[in-house]
Amino acid sequence: MDKFEAKKLLKDLDIVQEFLKDKDLPQLERQLSSEVETLKKEDYDIWINSIPDSVKEIMYKKLMPEEMYDVFFPSLLHSDLSKNEIILVFSILKSEKEIDQCTLENSGKLNDLKVILQFIVENDRSKFLSIFQNPEVKQKLLRAKEFAEKNKNLISNILFRKRNEWDEIAESFEGLDMSLKDDRQIYLAPFVNQNTETLNEDKFFSIIQEFLKNQTNLLSIQSKNGIEESVRDIWEELKKEELAQQLNSFSIEMLKKRIKNEQIAAALNDFNSVEEIIKLSVNDIVERYDLSVQQGTELLKQAKDIRNKLKSNVYPKLTLDKLKGKRLQLLHLLNVYRNYPNDQAVEEKVVLENYKQLEEKLNSLESIAPNRYLTNSISSNSFEYWRESEKEIYRIIDGCIRVNRTFKNYLKDNLNDQEIKALFEKDSATFYALIEEITGNKKNYNPSDLPDYIVQEVQKTKLDLKGFKAHLRSYQDFGSKYIFYFQKTLLGDEMGLGKTIQALAVATHLSNQGKNRCLVVSPLSVLENWRREIEKWTNLKCFVFRGNKATKEQNLAKWEETGGILLTNYSQCGILKESREKIDFDFAIVDEAHLIKNPSTKRSKNVNDLIKNCDYKLLMTGTALENRINEMFNLIELLNKSLAEKVANNLNNKTYKTDIAQVYLRRKRKEVLHELPALSFTTMWSTFNDEEQVFYDQAIREGTGAGVLMKMRRAAFIDADSQKIKQIIDICIDAHENNEKVLVFSFFKYYVLQFLKKHLPYLADDIISGDLPPNQRQEVIDIFSKNPKQNVLLVQIDAGGFGLNIQAANRVILCEPQWKPSTENQAISRAYRMGQNRNVMVYRLLTKDSVDETMMEIIHKKEDIFNTYANDSAVADAFMNSDSDKEENEEVVKKKVFQIERERLEKKQEVVGANG
């Protein structure tokens, strides 16, 4: 063997050693690569074809199709491997084991051979040169050649096996089953790239998660839910602004009165507002004002207590003069919200909920296996859940996308600022109801004067208001549930709180439950208003039992046939009762129920006979008590006789509040209508002119009697030169200049209102009086409310003092005092009620040294009694200690008033005589 052959063997030996190290089997690997590609493509095709097109579009926005294929990893270990792959992988594994065995057996010999061959290459010489070679080297070279010659076949044998045995399909498959069992994970090796095992997330899931996050954020903004969030944000901003204003305006002097310590009070002289105190720390206060830590803590506590109290009651008011900026933006949002298609809103909510659930499901899958490669290391059951969940995720996303594509953009209304202001002026109650609904105040309404268990039971009540078109305020929602829950109730809410709406909500619910025979009894003056409200807010059919006999019979027959609401007035109740042997009502509503407070009257008996067998009864009145305390019990007796007797006989009993709370509910405007603008009272005094004084004194001289008091009360209006008339004209002109409207109330139509009609400017088309039919009254009010040239509406107080809504006016003139406090309250409530968005000014016109002064004393006394006994739905404790029998009736009061005025005249005459 010469050095040339040694070089060749050395080269082959390098190839053998590299092969034994790398175990490179190119032919098998090419075949396996081809087979793997086929398997991956098949699995990928199955997977990609199972994905909805909409989901593919999401993925294609982030990855090209070839990139998707590249990052895809099939879950091979949970499915049957192909026969070809099994054979190829087994052949590779078998060859690798044999190669390893060959290496183990021959690596030492090969290393020695390599050294020998290198020695031969370095020392082998030609015959001539070998003459000069060292004998020892010659001898060593000879032995090396013998060793190389003897072992050179080892190299050729390995190369032969590399080409013809190891890089070929195995001839024997002995041990294949064991290989599949023990080395299954190895079969994944061909699919693994350098990033696979270190990847902590699934690329496709990452894309879907990003999509869900973006869509959730987008839909949260561009949906009804987004409108709600914007409304809540603006409302909170307005509350913060309002609180800051109240804190800045809160008098430091008021805070001083709360603090007894003189040193602390003295420190307050350096502050201009409570807000300045709150901004400081205790240490700041102590250092600046030489107070102890205890004193500084007390001062800061008092300031924060005030802030917290103000904060709990803060309620931004959307008065017309402040409608700009955020307030105007809020109205536009609320208008969009109220007109938002309910179907789309429901679907938006479902889609949003699905998106959030999908994010949770994706997180759940990642906790099982964070990527597709690692699904090969989980159990078969876990993998089955993983795979089916993945399919479900894509299916739900596709459904959401399909629904989402149907959504239209309703985020802006088509109204300009002036139009939205006009809409708010017309229907501000709905806007405030929506604010309560969105901000959560509706859910949080809790009448403080009712026992907790009653509140809880009522709040749990569910009403089916399908077909009901109004948005209930929080207190109205509670009132409606209360009426339905207790079935026989007296609703004594103050005027202007929407008792009609609450009654109609219950009527709608009962109708939806199959109890669709409803009766409404009201005064004739508000019958038309009831008809309009029924038509406006419900889908219930309304039949009016009034008119000629044929009309009444026809409407009654239709009502009996179809159900709905039978609407009638008090004077028709007897006729209605006699028209049928028996009439069954599911629900009876009696409006202005104080008109049947006396059980002995024919009117009360007719109503009671008509509704006595009714399962659901509702008496409504803004005045539960007028002249006698026991009148409220008379009304309760119509609903629950045994309860009325129990209450009347046990006024001091501890169970009294609880007992009456089951039948009587009363809320006051100031308690529930936080948005109501300011209500101010101005007393405008005047004196009689000579002609009026003579008329007044002459009336007193005529003696007692109803006619005498009538003359005395209208004495200030007999002459055009009247101071009261001048006052009224001034108020009306000022209102006109400020684009405001005025209601002028008087008891006297002919002697006062007709007289005023000749002298006042900007008048409505007619006087609201008892002579004007109810439907015409409403027409006059409608025109007055809309016509900018009509600023003054004359109203006879007994005809227009109750049941009518005239929020277009925000000034109220009371021409003379009335005998009942409720009469004046009812009149004021025509303007100062839910829906009013201007400050309301009430002018009491009083004449000095006249019946006006004496009557005001009586009114104030009666009003105190009313506030004591009836303003709390459970009735204040003081009520229990009162003696209702001591209150004088109206006739006695009138006699007293006349007696006082006669004595006044006699004293005046004595003075004149003494000076005369």
UniProtKB/TrEMBL annotation:
Q: Which CDD domains match?
A: DEXHc_Snf, SF2_C_SNF
Where does the record place the Helicase C-terminal domain? 727-883
Q: Which UniProt keywords apply?
A: ATP-binding, Helicase, Hydrolase, Nucleotide-binding
User: Is-annotated flag, keyword Repeat?
Assistant: no
Q: Which residues form the Helicase ATP-binding domain?
A: 480-642
Is the keyword Nucleotide-binding assigned to this protein?
yes
One GO MF annotation is: hydrolase activity
Organism domain of life: Bacteria
Instruction: Please name the InterPro entries in this protein's record.
Output: Helicase_ATP-bd, Helicase_C-like, P-loop_NTPase, SNF2-like_sf, SNF2/RAD54-like_C, SNF2_N, SNF2_RAD54_helicase_repair
This chain belongs to the protein called Superfamily II DNA/RNA helicase, SNF2 family
